[in-house]
């Protein structure tokens, strides 16, 4: 039951936070993830794996009794299905640094390979890796 690293519309104060995380999370902590950059999407960001990049977000730990429901809800939100070539995002396990410097493994939704290639070619990079700072 890995926590989730959220960096866009699921962050506190963003539109999907209350819809998906309220009542399902046990904790939310500021965090950063290395090896990714952010690109602007149509109303939401994409994290694209890129050496040297850093993205700002939060690590969300689900309440154990809500974990399965939350995982399914987030997979549907991100239009992710394991092995589906039409995915916009892929859910991957990556290390994430918490504010105190400790590192945890977390699920994160990153741009699927075809989407990532399009974004690298002609997408709008979000400088600083912080969706809120765009």
UniProtKB/TrEMBL annotation:
Classification via CDD domains: GGCT_like
Pfam families recorded: GGACT
Domain Gamma-glutamylcyclotransferase AIG2-like, residue spans: 4-132
Domain of life (superkingdom): Bacteria
Protein name: Gamma-glutamylcyclotransferase
